[in-house]
Design a protein that fits this description.
single chain; 237 residues; alpha/beta; Rossmann fold; 2 domains; four-stranded parallel β-sheet; three-stranded parallel β-sheet; 50% helix
Length: 237
């Protein structure tokens, strides 16, 4: 029996859909049937998770996500993933609130950068760029987690961070994909490469909807795909 996957989603709806589609489609592509694991989704109301970070009320974020995680556990989830990057800032608090395991996106991304998941150790990188919400880029939870693996994380300058954040909240979470925004992201990625980034983490689960490796001309780490793949493998283990 496969483990039941609990998805803590709704932040945003776009990313939650991407996780669900990846899990189901990747299974079918791999095995040729539709016997993918059962998936339980708890979709929170997104607005508080926009407002609370703006107010620096991460205690409320942690409390709200903990309550949602407990509902997933009560519904029968064998393990839980948070389907967004930024909210991993309170990952430890949420994990402490439930007895089932949670799979960290940060751990999965770190292993991908070092080639541990693919087995391609020759491609391991030491310096990567990071794009995401302002909270993901300006808080240090990504830098701290990857530094423990010997990876240096670079973020864009203040103006570019503001631009990336605006595109995420005003366009991507609403499903709007604009060519001019893609060009803007590619320019920022090139700046990170000039500063020494060997690859760039797409540290917001909506960014892969906008930009690809073909656009950027360098390796990009799609955190949605990486995290969802880790969840699928764990469920099938």
């Amino acid at each position: 029996m496969h483990k039941k996957i609990g998805i803590l989603g709704g932040m945003s709806p776009e990313s939650t859909v991407e996780y669900y589609q990846y899990l189901t489609r990747a299974y079918t592509e791999r095995f040729g049937d539709y016997g993918y694991p059962e998936i339980i989704i708890y979709s929170v109301s997104f607005q508080p998770y926009v407002d609370w970070p703006q107010q620096e009320r991460w205690d409320l974020v942690a409390r709200g996500l903990s309550e949602a995680a407990q509902k997933l556990e009560a519904a029968g989830a064998d393990f839980i993933i948070i389907a967004t990057n930024t909210m991993h800032l309170v990952f430890d608090q949420v994990q402490a609130s439930v007895s089932v395991p949670m799979l960290s996106l940060l751990d999965a991304v770190g292993e991908a950068i070092l080639g541990l998941r693919s087995g391609d150790l020759a491609q391991r990188m030491k310096t990567v760029g990071l794009l995401g919400t302002k909270f993901t880029m300006e808080k240090t939870f990504y830098q701290d987690a990857l530094a423990r693996r010997g990876i240096t994380v670079l973020v864009p300058d203040a103006d570019d961070r503001e631009y990336v954040n605006t595109v995420i909240y005003d366009e991507l979470v609403a499903g709007q994909i604009r060519d001019e925004s893609r060009a803007g992201f590619v320019t920022i990625i090139k700046k990170l490469a000039e500063r020494g980034a060997e690859g760039v983490i797409l540290g917001c689960t909506e960014i892969p909807l906008l930009v690809s490796e073909a656009d950027a001309g360098m390796p990009l780490f799609d955190t949605t795909a990486i995290h969802a793949e880790a969840a699928l493998n764990y469920a099938l283990r």
